[in-house]
Amino acid sequence: MKKILYLMLAMFCLAACKKDETKVNGPSDISNVSAKPIVGGAVIKWTLPKDSNFLYLEVRYEKKGKIVTTNVSKYTDSLVIDGLLNKYQYKFEVQAFNATKTDKVGGAILTTNTVTPIRRGINTVYSKIPVTNSMIDTYTQETTEGPKSNLVDGDKATYWHSAWSANVQPLPHWITIAFPTETELSQIRYYFRQNTTLTGRPTQFGLDTSTDGVNYTRVWTSASGLPVGTGVVTTENILQLDKSYKSKYFKVLILAASGNPTFTTLGDMSFYTAILTDLELAAEQNY
To answer: Which of 6, 7, 15, 222 is the most buried (most CB within 10 A)?
Structure first.
């Protein structure tokens, strides 16, 4: 009989212990929640309670009419939320929780200030425009070396040279480009001739456009005194135009050159158009 009583008492104690295990105490509350806008998102911050008497946090906000919930570690006092849009305003709820497998108890719900994410910018990628020998002409052209075809052959080891032995003319010298259709030009890149002579290396450029290939108008001039380096310069130089210029005919002028010569020379020249992507609009399409 005693064995039966002991067995019943043990079963009662076990049941009571399990009941106590499922009981969840309320968590300590966080404080000082705030939201700060960043590009395409927000940073949520809060102050943790000193006793850390909670298991985890939930951060919630509304997106497209639905509530998005992110669980956050009890040891974290901030959360970065991205994928938000500049055209919307957001506020966030932060709540501490204690929980077991079968139950959870939440603390006070704290709400941040309303924020508008900072607008994403414009991404610019430069695409090379095909330019062939038949599309260009030069003024002037040396007959003994440096044909104009070398200017656009994609090989910096070859070079173009304006006239120095006959029909010599003072600078500016230039390269004209005739595109099949109107083309946007945003950037010009060039290599110096791959030798150690500094004389003739361009120190200032200009850009003209034309509607008929005869009458040209100056639309851009570079800074003067562009660096020419020393010795053999193997790096590519970039002329960033102040904006994209659209035309069928372009004239790239060498307005001045190192050593103030009556000629100029280049290893290679290439031409680029800017492809712009509005990252905010792209994000809206994928929101």
So the answer is: 222
Beta strands 122-129; 268-278: pairing state: antiparallel
Strand partners for 191: 268
Each residue's pLDDT tens digit, 120-173: 999 999 999 999 999 999 999 999 999 999 999 999 999 999 999 999 999 999
How does DSSP classify residue 155? -
Measure CA 259 to chain center: 39
Provide the greatest CA pair distance for the chain: 129
110: Cα separation from own chain's centroid:
35
- Is residue 33 included in any domain, yes or no? yes
Residue in 109, 112, 103, 107 with CA at minimum distance from that of residue 53: 107
**Percent helix, strand and coil across the chain, each to the nearest 5:** 15, 50, 40
HSE-up of 217 (CA within 13 Å, CB side)? Answer: 8
Within this chain, do residues 107 and 130 fall inside the same structural domain, yes or no?
Answer: no
Tell me if 30 sits within 8 A of 57, measured CB to CB.
yes
Question: Which alpha helices (DSSP H) does 129-264 contain, by range?
Answer: none
Q: Where a domain ends, among 49, 81, 111?
A: 111
Residue pair 144/129 in contact by the 8 Å Cβ criterion? no
Q: How many CB atoms lie within 10 A of CB 176?
A: 18
The SS3 call for residue 13 is helix
User: Residue 59, exposed/middle/buried by CB under 10 A (0-12, 13-18, 19+)?
Assistant: buried
Q: How many residues does the chain have?
A: 287
Which residues are 137's β-sheet partners? Answer: 176
What pTM value is reported for the model? 0.78
Domain coverage including residue 147: 126-278
Q: What tokens does 179 get?
A: 């595109």
